[in-house]
């Protein structure tokens, strides 16, 4: 990985730069001003000041640095540096003219200034020196603005601190800004600099600036500058977490983002720790062993000290900001700092301190939030494998009860890693290795770690002795393979075959339910699904197994939905969800919500689909299934928002879901959704970046070289937008050859129709593709309004006939998809222009333009404007005088439409959906209506409308 040494641009710090700019304005316009920039090491103080001063035009800038050489060395070091740099800028003669006549005390610093003044009284000489420097700075500032930067004042020698205190009290000349930087952690209560800072704080007009850590978004921006390319979300999350937003740490980790600490950063941290006294380092090592956050009682036990002995070391560590003091304990300021301290612990000390920690937690489990997990880690580090195995097993069980499935499978993996190091582990735990592997596979399924779960299920299958366990492993592996896009039917069917007659009845019911769901797919066997579902439902009802009943109802609902019976499907999904919640079958309950939302979306009720999917998104976090079902629900929610024209909301949902690092297949789906939005908004670069990221995810997840059908359409359209017809044709050909094409045909068919128009000069390909497209369209479903609208639009795109386009427009008016309506209107206008019907073309083009402006569909708007130029069409809406009776109270025709819906009890979102405007625009119309009717509430507006028959 190649990186820059530092980012080419300053990231974030807008507020801090604005504060410096404000200080500069005050200094120039009113009087000398100080700006103090304080913060921890590496937070970017010097970079901030450098970037700010570099942008000042017309100002003289000079910097002096303090040196880390001890308090008694090089007195006045920063001011000496300032004076020498001024000499280089001004020349000796010009500098001499600015100073008082006669011998100078400053000549002791710069012999070029002439003979040094001889003072019998040292105090008088010191005073003269201070006055001469004051005079020089103020006279320079009187000529043009002067910015003096004093860096790293935490290392300032006592003489420099005295001179700074003198300047604070005496500088007054307008045009002078003094910027001071220091590390807040290195200036304790007794530091000589502290009173000077306090004096500054009491004076009006001074500026104190404290840069904080970078946000995750700013960390991503910094990494982009360092790496020269946009980093993946996993890298951003890892670096932001480990760096705590410190820019210096981010820069170091960008070159080595693995779990280790890069050598230069490790050496720097070690050097900082070496400055501590032995007692403080000893306490810090004990705290590092105990964890990132350490309760006071636990630290006392691990350090082996009394409170009285511990307190001085803790006070120093807190003052140095190495440890942050909380209500009942301490936390390391940076995880990287803790790593550096851990590296300093000797092996024997490491074992001893971990053993103390484990013993303390075992004696008082209330010391930590997760005692078993902590015990597993500490006993392992102490070399006590048997105790560690017991603790990890208990921690896994507790994690499962808390819905912390990721922690559960990680704990189970630790159990498996110690299996051969502990005598008779099966007897200790009461479970075989295969059973533990199966538990890990099931935990992975809930946590969304599907590939890892497949590995565990396969290993469990290889060593499982009991047939029931083999059946569970097969069922789990089959389920997981389905989740990653591969065929899992064979495993599920094999599981049913090997299931013994005396197997738990719940296992048989769950297996039958899974088979029913698999067979209820669009290309499955509905009769077989019904048989499995009926048998599972019978078992569930006979034995009171609510979860089994829920799974069976889910399968029946899916079959009903595919048959076009949406009302029955919704009823079954809701019943399944209620049963699953009652049985705490969280995955099934979420699947029921997902299925309900998807069915509502297919039925055209996008608003309610978004509500149901949002409810599911709330539930997933409570039950620990954010990665396994959260991304699925996010995809449906985003799709519902996209189709209803709420594009910015859809993009927020996608970004939130991607930030959670979903499984590859769902990440690919979300990226393709982002690409579709970006393409419509005219951002072709963002669309291409999204499909570039999604392609390897989707092909790997599906276990094949070609894209899944649902992704092919958007990838084809991105290629078309770039003018890459060869790639678009290849993608289309692969999609048409895919036997799964009938599962999601219309998006591909629409992309294919667009390609056909672009390939009009290549009749050899046109003929073959047209035949394939027509054949597929002839057998694709049209049993829903949106599907019929797609069918009519497909026909219009291929024929270009005005009547076909008018039919498509009429169909889309019945479906609340404003973007598709805008596309159809544009097609109608284009066809009308060709037919010489300019009036009809103008009407349709104006309506299309109004829709796309509301949506922000820049790509289509560009095409509309080009067509208006080519066809000499006027996009301006003519002002038609309205009779007074038609516009009572000065209401516009659009406000009358809004008032009609408001009177019917519609919300702003529902008004927006019906009128193809955003909820915020609907809210603006409602506010204007209330003002024109001179009422304050919607109910009053409705009453006025009814009383006066306004609607």
UniProtKB/TrEMBL annotation:
Top-rank taxon: Bacteria
SUPFAM superfamilies: C-terminal effector domain of the bipartite response regulators, P-loop containing nucleoside triphosphate hydrolases, TPR-like
Keywords (A to Z) from UniProt: ATP-binding, Nucleotide-binding
Entries under Pfam families matching the protein: AAA_16 (PF13191), GerE (PF00196)
InterPro entries (UniProt xref): AAA_16 (IPR041664), P-loop_NTPase (IPR027417), Sig_transdc_resp-reg_C-effctor (IPR016032), TPR-like_helical_dom_sf (IPR011990), Tscrpt_reg_LuxR_C (IPR000792), WH-like_DNA-bd_sf (IPR036388)
Domain HTH luxR-type positions: 884-949
Family matches, as Gene3D superfamilies: Tetratricopeptide repeat domain (1.25.40.10), Winged helix-like DNA-binding domain superfamily/Winged helix DNA-binding domain (1.10.10.10)
UniProt-recorded name of the protein: Helix-turn-helix transcriptional regulator
Lineage: Bacteria, Bacillati, Actinomycetota, Actinomycetes, Propionibacteriales
